[in-house]
């Protein structure tokens, strides 16, 4: 019996340890799934931040690059990456809900149920141990009493055979032996009853109570294993469930890459940036070693030649690979704000005078600063309302775009005016619906808006017509000033905002400039007094101080710049609005 009890103790300890180890495995897996969830959440967060970081730089719809398929594809990739991050978040959420929270709930139930079964087993063990103790006590009592009864019987028999013993002694010894024998019989019967009780309880313990408890623990452990196995499957199914959507995200990224059209992008860039300038013809060589021949000069320098067709094919490339100049305008006087020169259009040609002398003066006065600044590009033009600072093609596009916007706004105002008129008629016919006078302010404001928009429409239509019909003027200006097609009416250096590859013909301009530097200076046509300081930092300009008096060599041709000369012979351009001019009569 003692060996059997030890055996059940051993089995109980093993089962208790096994079930505890199983629950610890569930806890370990829940912790593992939770850490995986945190990894997915952090991964998704980092992906979203990455997508947001790079999407902000491309958010402006006004950027011309947004029309390019390569840029649009990148934006699509960022969008798909953001959706992909959402699917990683969904994986984390499902792992948390279906594994961590669900298994944690079942784990608590398993622990409570296991605790109950283990307590029942302990109670059965304690009951069997208590019965065994009673059995052992009765057994030891029976053994003790039986030995006492045996000694009492031996003493009575010895006393009966002793000749010196009295009859009373013999009777007393016999009664004592009989009493001990009776007590021994009672202990024997009690021991037999306790033994029967223990054997019954032991049989109940081994064949009924403990098997039932162990079966329950086995069922609990199997349910625990089954639930854990489901958690293992969910770990995979959770990600498999979103794989189709993740696949669509990846397909979207692939599609974004395949949708890139390099040819179309090139055409878009060309369309956005082509200037529309005509390429000027080559200047002919003047052989001064044989003396200046007026006839040959007239034929070679009298009229600038313009080659139209070759430049039309190359204009796009000329402006396509240029860089925008971002340098600041000249610094103004600290206590005064001079108005910016307002352009009135490009200067008109003056070939009515002698062609040779005019061309020599023009080359001497304009070619050098404009060609030099074509290489340096130190100053960007002032943005004007009529977009005259842009190349012809870009100007026409911007004017047309602005005109379309005005037309849309005008149509909206006209529709609103008609609606207000109808509402006024309804109010006049049905005064109970409203006061017609209450609409007067809105009708008046709408009318003013319509008049203003019509004025702007007419203004931009005029500018657009001018832009469409200024081809000859633009070609003349491009030829006679900077040889690169720049159409800047604000800057004497002719560079509006692009930096291009220098033309080899610049060397010819430089030679002309060097040859004519010693020519006689033109006579002043007036004087001017500086109202503001002007640094003259750009090529072709000249610095001046407030109050300084300079000689006017060439008046403003409508581009906002006047050519002046100092007493020491220095010449250059200054903003017309910075000075007060007095011309000679």
Automatic annotation (TrEMBL):
Annotated keywords: Cell membrane, Coiled coil, Cytoplasm, Cytoskeleton, Endocytosis, Lipid-binding, Lysosome, Membrane, SH3 domain
Molecular function GO terms recorded: lipid binding
Coiled-coil spans in chain: 107-204
Record keyword S-adenosyl-L-methionine present: no
Stretches the record annotates as Disordered: 332-352, 484-506
Residues in SH3 domain copies: 523-584
GO biological process: endocytosis; signal transduction
Subcellular location(s) of the protein: Cell membrane; Cytoplasm, Cell cortex; Cytoplasm, Cytoskeleton; Lysosome
Start and end residues of each REM-1 domain: 389-466
Comp. bias intervals (Pro residues): 336-349
Domain F-BAR: 1-265
Chief subcellular location: membrane
Pfam families named in the record: FCH, HR1_TOCA, SH3_1
Cellular compartments per GO CC: cell cortex; cytoskeleton; lysosome; plasma membrane
UniProt keyword annotation of DNA-binding present: no
PANTHER family: CDC42-INTERACTING PROTEIN 4 (PTHR15735:SF17), FCH AND DOUBLE SH3 DOMAINS PROTEIN (PTHR15735)
Family assignment from sequence similarity: Belongs to the FNBP1 family.
Protein name: Thyroid hormone receptor interactor 10b
Organism: Astatotilapia calliptera (Eastern happy)
